[in-house]
Amino acid sequence: MSETVLRLDGIQKTYNPGTVGAVHVLRGASLPIARGEVVALVAPSGSGKSTLLHIAGLLDTPDKGVVEIAGQDAGRLSDRARTAIRRAEVGFVYQFHHLLPEFSALENVMLPQQANGASARRARDRAMELLSRVGLGPRAGHRPAQLSGGEAQRVAFCRALANAPKLLLADEPTGNLDPATADQVFAVLMDIVRETGLSALIATHNMELAARMDRVVRLAEGQVAAEG
């Protein structure tokens, strides 16, 4: 049986509970992702996909339900232990790269490693390895403002993968790019994911990109369902 890297079971989340303005975002959402599986999450704006990704990545907590990462039930762990899992096992990529503007591409990829205890030399070697893999070795010393949108997003991928996580969570990772650049950047992402055996949950509006993943699921009315 394949190892389950992420298991969401019965996730519920309501904002402003007990008020007239209560918003029931997730209503029992469940989703397992196996090791090495790449799943596309298709959802309209405002449906709760970002909330689901934040809960899956331990950036937010559900009102009810189970979040299990690499066999560990996050609901039974302390905040410190949850943070340790998030740093070691989960990588995030967003629509906008969110690179730190005062640091170079190399330094941006080094930072999460050093925050996780890696030495400067080890972090630098790992960062250069990743940047070279996505064709940005010669641009390692450039700051985000000196990079194109596609280049900056590739750096963001490298940063997300810097600590060799088991799970990658991506929220519209190519949504801010033109179609041609989006296709190129997505191809780079998929190459890295396949090479490393990562599991990934990638939210996208682009059905052409979604079709290139292993499985497509839809978030609607607070629940996750397989795409027909």
TrEMBL record:
GO terms for molecular function: ATP binding; ATP hydrolysis activity; transmembrane transporter activity. Signal peptide: none annotated. Gene3D superfamilies: P-loop containing nucleotide triphosphate hydrolases. This is Lipoprotein-releasing system ATP-binding protein. The lineage of its organism: Bacteria, Pseudomonadati, Pseudomonadota, Alphaproteobacteria, Rhodobacterales. Belongs to the ABC transporter superfamily. Macrolide exporter (TC 3.A.1.122) family. Keywords: ATP-binding, Cell inner membrane, Cell membrane, Lipoprotein, Membrane, Nucleotide-binding, Transport. PANTHER family: IMPORT ATP-BINDING PROTEIN, LIPOPROTEIN-RELEASING SYSTEM ATP-BINDING PROTEIN LOLD. InterPro entries: AAA+_ATPase, ABC_transporter-like_ATP-bd, ABC_transporter-like_CS, ABC_transpr_LolD-like, MacB-like_ATP-bd, P-loop_NTPase. Residues 6-228 form the ABC transporter domain. GO terms for biological process: lipoprotein localization to outer membrane; protein localization to outer membrane. One of its GO terms (cellular component) is plasma membrane. It comes from Gemmobacter megaterium. The keyword Methyltransferase does not apply.
